[in-house]
Specification:
By secondary structure, the chain is of the alpha+beta class. The chain contains five helices and seven strands; from the N terminus they run H-H-H-H-E-E-E-E-E-H-E-E. A hairpin with a 5-residue loop joins strand 1 and strand 2. Helix 3 runs antiparallel to helix 4. It is globular and about 70 Å long. The two termini are 25 Å apart.
């Protein structure tokens, strides 16, 4: 269940497409760099390959989507934190509200620590995703196998603790989403999380 790699968290490399094709894009009035490459290839004036053109086009498209999603999520979570003094935002963007600290002398901190957790997760429309019927009621796993945001959230409270997590998409399932769990690409999630048990790796 490890979160997939998020390829859109950084701008795509632009040197090739900007230097070789974007000037043509302006002068030929094509709708995208891939069309420029296609036109060049048909005229025997290929500057970069069609495969490279398609790759850079998709990179730009995905990065544009990610930027718009990021701005929306950031504003939403900022407003949320301002609405309740008990809601906190971490440096990563994870936003949370502790319900019960639990036993803080027994917290998971090491990537190989094992936790048993129960949770309900919803999207921002309030629909339940990753329903219990698709998984055991209690999930037992190591911190390192959890999505980045969930792993961070588990560390906030001890055994027996509860916490609500608002998780921006880059800390959840990113641009890939998870079709089996019903999670769309670039979807922000809200977890109601309970730490049932913590087994700390021998230090």
């Amino acid at each position: 269940n490890q979160a997939p790699r998020r390829l859109c968290n950084r701008p795509p490399q632009t040197s090739l497409i900007s230097s070789k094709s974007m000037s043509l894009h302006k002068t030929k009035h094509h709708s995208n760099p891939y069309e420029v490459c296609l036109s060049d290839a048909m005229q025997g004036q290929e500057k970069i390959s069609l495969a490279d053109g398609k790759f850079y086009l998709l990179s730009y498209m995905n990065y544009d989507v990610y930027e718009r999603v990021r701005k929306y999520e950031d504003q939403y979570l900022t407003d949320l934190a301002e609405s309740d003094k008990d809601i906190v935002r971490s440096r990563t963007g994870l936003t949370y509200k502790v319900g019960d600290l639990g036993n803080m002398s027994n917290t998971a901190t090491h990537p190989r620590d094992t936790v048993a957790i129960m949770y309900t997760v919803k999207n921002m429309a309030g629909a339940v995703v990753d329903p219990v019927e698709n998984r055991p009621d209690t999930l037992r796993t190591t911190l390192m196998k959890l999505p980045e945001g969930l792993s961070e959230g588990v560390k906030l409270v001890g055994q027996g603790g509860t916490v609500t997590l608002w998780m921006p998409s880059h800390l959840a399932f990113g641009a890939a989403g998870d079709k089996e769990k019903g999670i769309k690409p670039n979807e922000m999630l809200c977890y109601e999380l309970q730490i049932v048990e913590v087994k700390r790796r021998r230090r």
